[in-house]
Amino acid sequence: MRTYAGHSSAAASNELYRRNLAKGQTGLSVAFDLPTQTGYDADHKLAKGEVGKVGVPVAHIGDMRRLFDGIPLAEANTSMTINAPAMWLLALYVTVAKEQAEAEGRDVDEVLAKLTGTTQNDIIKEYLSRGTYIFPPGPSLRLITDMIAWTVHHVPRWNPINICSYHLQEAGATPTQEVAYALCTAIAVLDAVRDSGQVEPSDMAKVVARISFFVNAGVRFVEEMSKMRAFTALWDEITRERYGVEDPKARRLRYGVQVNSLGLTEAQPENNVQRIVLEMLAVSLSRGARARAIQLPAWNEALGLPRPWDQQWALRMQQVLAYETDLLEYEDIFDGSHVIQAKVDEIVAGAREEIDQVLGMGGAVAAVESGYMKSQLVASFADYRRKVESGEQVLVGVNKFDTTEPSPLQAEGAKAIETIDPEVEKQAVAALEEWRTTRDSEAVERSLEHLRAVAKTSENLFDATLACAAAGVTTGEWSGALREVFGEYRAPTGVTAASSSGESGEQLERVRTRVRETGGELGERLRILVGKPGLDGHSNGAEQVAVRARDAGFEVIYQGIRLTPEQIVAAAVQEGVHVIGLSVLSGSHLEVVPEVVDGLRAAGAGDVPVIVGGIIPPDDAQLLTERGIARVFTPKDYELTEIMDEIVTVVRESRGLA
């Protein structure tokens, strides 16, 4: 039982972890901030406004020591949501475990053999959904392979990778796509480990047994539960037939769950409680396909960062299910159900067909590089959005039953979400500067030089990374050294090949007419730049805006994620756009958005209006409006065609048209 937690600083997060463990939480799930996830230190320009917002900043071994102060790692079960720099964060974790063992006079190897937990480390889904990738697919897969090989030999109880279908669902995947693309990723990873020569063929069963999955549970109960039974059957089949694993226990699908956070609503957020409970049931009722670990979001995550009390409420939901009900006491209660079996068979057949399609293209990496998987997800999500907007897919409190009483949970004066003090970032930068002055700089440079040298060979990178951790290297320095060797990468956006299929109603046609007429009055086609400033890689919303804007007749400029305000301004000026739409979900809107406005003014383009969409509290929306933002949209504004209509109005206002 976990809650996904971490914010502000290592010290503040350590305090939160201790409180959660005292309340009966049985595992830790570490949320890292976006600079840490993308391999930047707190003082990098892209980190501005992002430090400590969506997780804890960990810049070096000192931060990792503080994060787990007083928590014996040999007895902990720690999940770390980290991907591109997963090797680095695990090296820091292992180093702290070694230090704890030495301080207690215990055998280091014995302590390492007891470490249990998971590093997410699924880079394929980062190219498809979350966007916290750093390096190109080839070098990224090499880092994963090296890490799996090292852990199998040295930390045998650790799960070195967590194949994440969770984020695929949030990016629009159907149950069939979610199962198929996750299994394609697993095949790519296992093939790479097998072919690397770092693991004996006889040890492949050990590798398979340490592969875990991280799955999304949506609110369509029967479909989600059937999906997990299909997942279990296909994993057993693939590991037996493709990798020759004979032990049924090693072939068991080991998965954890976070129920669907992006399915939570800003409108009537109290309804999220029952959504969360139903989604938890979908992955716990079927004993033959039951999750091994569950972490639940809080009811108010569509509003902002949950408070400790909100996380406690989410934890208590699991405890009530486990200790008060009899739901976990019986054999699989769905065995023999012809309804469930029919749905399972349907998902299995569809997933097999899609797996064959991807493998026929050369596997998951090739399907990422070609843009195939990304465009499929964008198209699926566009179809879902169309159903929500038409009312075919009901969201209670959003597009139906939207009358409401005032919520006591959000009463005036109640602090409905956790907020991060802006001083956190300043303190992190100051602490980083101090760290650099107190370490052995020569040892740091030697370890980084060795890392670069090893990266240019086929040698395993983990020992070189451990040496960097012990020397006091920072997260940004480790990533920077590998950036020099491997280069950086920008993944396909999937927008070009996607369309709002079926979207041809009267409302969209009316907006198309307004776009065309406004362009005629201005003497040129309307152009919108859709931008993702900062490090927030959740691009689903931005992609759907780009797709709908194109379908409405706009010329769309969308360059993908992780742009500086300066890059957005430069692109807007170069392309001569009529409006800029910024998408920010990480809480950095007050820092990065005004920089775009100021940059436009400095470039002589202050007349280009800027609109913003994201998870933005009402008070912040007011501040943004006062800073010159033309419109602010939040998750309650789900009608994309209405948003397009409003964008046309913004353009007309900015150009003095009636």
TrEMBL record:
Pfam family for this entry, one: MM_CoA_mutase
Keyword GTP-binding: no
Domain B12-binding: 525-654
Reported cofactor(s): adenosylcob(III)alamin
InterPro entries: Acid_CoA_mut_C, Cbl-dep_enz_cat, Cobalamin-bd, Cobalamin-bd_sf, MeMalonylCoA_mutase_a/b_cat, MMCoA_mutase_a_cat
GO molecular function term, any single one: methylmalonyl-CoA mutase activity
Superkingdom: Bacteria
Protein family: Belongs to the methylmalonyl-CoA mutase family.
Assembly description: Heterodimer of an alpha and a beta chain.
Name by which UniProt lists this protein: Protein meaA
Species of origin: Amycolatopsis albispora
